[in-house]
Amino acid sequence: MSAAAHGTPGVQPPPVTTLAILHRLGPGLIIAGSIVGSGELIATTKTGAEAGFWLLWLILVGCVIKVFAQVEFGRYSLVTGRTTMDGLANVPGPRVAGRGNWIVWYWFLMFLASISQLGGIVGAVGQALAISVPLTAEGRAFNAYVETAIQRKIAATALERLPATSARPGVAGQRDSLSSLVRKLDEELAARDAAIVAEIGEDRFTQLQRRPPPPWDDRLWASLVAVGTAAILTWGRYRAVQAVSVIMVAGFTLMTVINLCLLQMHSSWGVSWREIGEGLQFRLPPAGTSPTARPVATALATFGIIGVGAAELIAYPYWCLEKGYARFAGRQDGDPDWAARAQGWMRVMRWDAWCSMFVYTFATMAFYLLGAAVLGRAGLNPERNELIQTLTAMYQPVFGAAAQALFLFGAFAVLYSTYFVANAGHARVFSDTLCVLGIVPAGEAEHRRRVRVLSGVFPLACLAVYLVVPEPAALVLLSGVMQAIMLPMLAYAALFFRYRCSDPRLAPGRGWDVCLWISAAGMLVAGVWALVSQIV
Question: Of all residues in the chain, what percent are helix, strand and coil, respectively (each to 5)?
Fold first, then answer.
């Protein structure tokens, strides 16, 4: 599929001023919009909850290291005007003529896991809406119980972390207030437990890990969201996707950063420089830090989807083509000015990649620190039907009674943004893959028709996964593992694009090549480590 099929027709000179370049950004921001929902809000905070501050270094590396491969994928699309799957199908290795190769085949497996990931995302959106507007009496009772239990853990942890003796004014009053609140919440939980046991019996209550039976509210809301998204995407276009993702992600990220800053004012919850320093020392959590979880395995699964994950690396050139970068540069055959224009548009693409990297790295670090500071200290692990309620706890020390309303609005924004953008990207990549494998005919008109149909089908497929397996965190981490395993393959492809498919006139400097090889080595280590961690 050529660049002529994408973006605004016609060759255009590249922008030269900073403001003009910023005006031409967009693909990276769309990718950032598809990352923050699952990678940051769910997987990163879960890693912080399980590992504390110990794996901060791994999360930071996961954000930064893949941007070099991202730019090489973008360079390939600009030089050749072709899509990612076209390029991957030409990477050396086992293949069947006209039916793809080893990377394309594995991509199909990863794609199924990505659909599961989006199933977890739409389920989390359903949970956020079910908390905000419960549809059944059972839903209201479940929300009240979980909220009370989480408040009790937060209050008890804050009480434990208050200094035993302090000259600071108000500390004694805080201790008395927290002690009173813990007693009150204990009495409320005991009354709720008794009511549930009277209704379903002690054995059933114990089987449910001493929680009320999960209601169907989240699945009902997820169904409504999936159907609505299918309709929107069927008729949506690039500009709508870009506008929705940028606005939603920016608002919630800003609120999260503000929350982290204000958390420093609380003696029970503030993050010290010593804790940050320990988290950046390239060490693993000591034995016994998290006896009921697998923090390293969770972190490696998170590594695959934070920053630019494998799915986003593949999707990025499609958004670049749709934005028009390759089309604006024009065709290189017989055009003496092509190299200068292509260099200019490569500069725009690098700005796009690095600006989006700054955005999602900043967001990722904030989410990780909140997960470690609040969830990790309180012993709260976001999972199953309590995922969103548990994540709300990160905002309670700062925002108090308003935490739930603020968080639910923000969580809905970024989760839905991820669901929206990722489904749009999947439709484009899957359509192109069918063409690469020779299953469907090539042609721009046929491609656009397939994208429209798939944009309506995929949101419903994601919903079906969640209805069968209603565990958002597990579904997200499954995709993270599959994407982490694919990272070494994509690193190899990036090197192939750099040295076999690029135009010498667009070749980067030696420093960039060194960073690209370091990036490829890091992706190899992370992918192999993720695979081994799932086996042993």
Answer: 75, 0, 25
- Cα dihedral across residues 272, 273, 274, 278: positive or negative: positive
User: What does the alpha-carbon distance between residue 18 and residue 23 come to, in Å, rounded to a whole number?
Assistant: 9
With CA atoms as reference, report the closest residue to 404 among 195, 161, 212, 130.
Answer: 130
Q: Is residue 57 part of a domain?
A: yes
Site of tokens 């083509």: 321
Kindly tell me if the per-residue pLDDT of 31 is higher than 80.
Answer: no
> pLDDT tens, 218-252?
999 999 999 999 988 887 654 665 566 667 777 78
Residue 359 CB contacts under 8 Å (≥ 6 apart), including other chains: 29, 32, 249, 253
- On whether residue 185 sits in a domain, the answer given is no
Residue 211 structure tokens: 């929680």
Please state, in angstroms and rounded to a whole number, the distance separating the CA atoms of residues 406 and 252: 9
Nearest to 310 by CA among 106, 131, 54: 106
Amino acid residing at 507: A
Closest CA to 486 of 34, 91, 135: 91
Domain annotation covers residue 209: no
* pLDDT at residue 175, rounded to an integer: 85
Closest by CA to 230, choosing from 459, 440, 477, 493, is 459
Contact partners, residue 343, CB within 8 Å, separation at least 6: 14, 505, 506
End-to-end CA distance of the chain: 42
Amino acid at residue number 259: N
Mean pLDDT of the chain: 88
C-alpha to C-alpha distances, 131 to 59, 137, 144, nearest whole angstrom: 30, 12, 9
Residues in Cβ contact with 448 at an 8 Å cutoff, skipping those fewer than 6 apart: none
Q: Give me the residues paired with residue 101 across strands.
A: 95
- Across residues 149-153, what is the average pLDDT? 93
What DSSP character marks residue 334?
A: T
**Confidence (pLDDT) at 171:** 72
Classify residue 175 as exposed, middle or buried by CB count within 10 Å of its CB (0-12, 13-18, 19+). middle
Evaluate if residue 464 carries a pLDDT over 90.
yes
Range of the domain at 283: 17-136+216-535
- Structurally, the chain folds into a number of domains equal to 1
Place of tokens 């999707």: 315
CA–CA separation, 405 and 121 (whole Å): 19
Residue-level pLDDT at 29: 77
The answer as to whether 8 is a domain residue is: no
State pTM to two decimals.
0.88
Q: 465: domain CATH number?
A: 1.10.4160.10
pLDDT in tens, 80-98: 999 999 999 999 999 998 8
Residue in 64, 56, 30 with CA at minimum distance from that of residue 417: 30
Total residue length of the chain: 536
